[in-house]
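note to self: dont lose this again. the chain is below, predicted strucutre after it. 302 aa total, dont forget to put it in the shared folder this time
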Amino acid sequence: MNKKTKFSQILPMFLMGSLFVIVDLLAFLVVGPFEAAGTVPFENPADPFNVVYFFTVMLISTGLILLIIKFFKKEVLKIIYLGAITILSVTVFYPLLIIPIPNATISFVLSLFGATVLVIALIKKPEWYVINATALFIGVGSITMIGISLTVPITIILLVAMAIYDAIAVYKTKHMIDLADSFVGLKLPVMFVIPKKRDYSLLKETKSLKEKLKNKGERQAYFLGVVDVVFPGLLAVSAFHNLTSNGLLMGLSVLVGTLLGYVGLMTLVVKGKPQPGLPLLNTGAILGYLIAGFLLFGTPPL
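---
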């Protein structure tokens, strides 16, 4: 393997890893506006039922999506998802606008306009950079909203549960691969796309993810699930938001742990087999929090 080939393989992995840093740091920056606007999905951050509620909604949603994929045209799924993106985008835009623009009506109208622009871009030009920009925006908003509405212990429980679920969904039921295949085929922002070449075009992709996994040839791009970035990021934001002392250091420690988990994940991905991201990523995030807690406090603050 020459230096040029090696660089072309390492650079996309480095760029993909940088997404964790970008998303988490942006989430830290917007915690204040989201908290001030009261944009939180859970009213009681310490309620263990939050995890049950989250899983219930997720499982029901996943089941409905699988039914739509099996019994209806995939375009139905695209319409539903674009509608969900519109609602989520408005929810993310609003707390960012309400502070500089205190008028609630104007802020809402501008939020709706911004969400509409994003959706139109996804419909008209769902190229990889449009997918990535939308996924980045949604990822930052989701991490911030959920992260500030859960205590650290509840967040850790959620991360452990999601890691187990992700492993089952990839290795056992394999429905996660079917979901990812359908969403990528519809050019929806559920995955970050990192091209290996400058002239790469997602619009010209004809092979499904399953075909790519079977094909042992050279990859044209790497894919990273948005949820793989979101869930470890929840712990980083929760630590940053909830800890009155060394919150930033603890949040950054979670990020470092996540990146170490990512390195481990990539060593498996390069072998060409589908890998659940959350077991390694969430484990790295949790270990980062625990180790930093011992170093800074003598015992992790829980």
